[in-house]
Structure formats: structure tokens, C-alpha cells
Amino acid sequence: MSQRFSGRYSPNAANQPNRAAIARPHPVGARVNILFVLPFAFAIRAFFQDPTGLALNLAAFGCLLLCAWLTREGVLAQAAYDARKVARKPAIPRKIFGAVLMGAGLGLAALTGGVVPAVILGALGAVLHLGAFGPDPLRDKGMEGIDTFQTDRAAHAIEEAENNLNEMTSAIKRSGDRALARRVESFAANIRPLFRVIENDPRRLNSARRYLGIYLVGARDATVKFADIYARNQDSAARVEYEALLDDLESRFALRRDALLADDRTALDIEIEVLRERLEREGLRTGG
């Protein structure tokens, strides 16, 4: 099926996804992916060894494969941590454990050549792993003076909202229309700034709970029903109504975010004004 070319300056450019917001490099790159390939060299090598070598190489294979998995999860956790101004440290230091397993795996594979070479190779592997991927975040970020209960509530609400967005993205693919799929991706990218505002200040959750809950659940349900209808009969009227719904929700989320940021600015202005008044009073007292 042919597809209409569209871009930034096309007549329908307003409905095009925000590429800058969507196109983000995935944190898991070639460095992580290659960790899943290397262990198989030891698995193949194991079957050309004596029983001791077989056991050691298979143990090395298991350690290195687990190292690759932990490293990937640690890199993803690091990316999520870095993307937020307020974040908790990962509950499990996955990259550090991955470095330990890297050293253990290489040490086991080299153990047939002696203990000293195995220790040296294992230590070198662990150090190089930490040098390549770095350690995990070991402290919370931006949580000074923030109630952990509020932070947990906000994190749970945002997780539920992200799940609803993922369900919308999966459901719209059933419609078979790539333009609609891109429109939903754009919708998700354009409303996530509200999530970031709540993450940065969990006290804002009460002001935005309706948006993260009722509105997104309604959008998810509407997307599921629309995708089923549109996949059957390509109803153009239903498509227009659905896209209008997304536009309306986007504007409401943007207004809510702007209102929360305006409240922050108002609070800052009040604090500055109070401080100025105090300084003026102190100046009058000093002059007197």
C-alpha cells in the first residue's frame, strides 16, 4: 500500500509526531549486546575439553550470560535514573554484580591454566567491565526533604500511566494504519512532560491524578474499541473523532502541566517577595 509523503512543512504537519520527542537513542547499544554473544565461545569450547575443562567452561558460560543480563538491566535502570531529576537508587546494583560475574566467568575459564592467571584475568575482566559500563547509582537523587511515601505514590501512578500508554500503542497497531500508530506515539511523547513534572515534585500528584488515571484509562479504552472498529471497516468518521479526542487530551495535558509550572513560579515569586520584605525590615532596623 502506498503511503503519502509528509513532513514538517506538509499541510497536515500539525498531526505529525514530534520526532525530537520520540527519537531517542536506546540505552542498550552494541556494547551490551556483544556481552550476550561472547559467552557462547566458552560453551562451544567446553565440548573440546576434558571433564574438568567442560565443567569450568560451562560454568563460565553461565556466569557470563548472567553478567550480560544483569548489565543490560543495570544500563536500563541507569538511563531511567539519569532521565529524572528525582529518583531513587536502584534496589540492586546490577552493573556491579555484572562486573563480579564477568570476573568470575573469566576466572573459571582460565582456571585450567593455574590459580594465579585465573585471578589476574578475573580481576582484569571485572575492572574493564566497570570501566566500560560504570557502577550503578549508589544514592538517591533530588529527594532531600521529600516524603518517601509521596514519592512511592507518584512512582506507582506514573507506572500505571505508562502501562496505559503501552496498551494504547499496542492496540492501535491492530488498526493496520501506520499514520495512526505514529499519531499515538506522538500523543504519548507529548503528554509525558506532565509525568516528569510529577516525578520532580511528587506533591503535585493530587493535582494531576485525574489526568494520569481517569483520562488515560478512558483514552486506552477508546483506542482499543477504535482499533477494532477501524480494522474491520476503515470508518473515516470514527477516525476523525478519535484523532480529535487525542488532540483534546493533548491540549488538556499541556494546560495541566503549564498550570503546575505556573504554580511553581508563583510560589517562587512569593518566596522572593517575602525575602525582600525581610531584608528591608532588617535594613530599617540597622539604620535605626
Automatic annotation (TrEMBL):
Chain ranges passing through the membrane: 28-48, 54-71, 92-109
Coiled-coil annotated residue ranges, if any: 151-178
Domain of life: Bacteria
Alphabetical keyword list: Coiled coil, Membrane, Transmembrane, Transmembrane helix
InterPro entries the record matches: ChloroindolylP_hydrolase
Protein name, entry field: 5-bromo-4-chloroindolyl phosphate hydrolysis protein
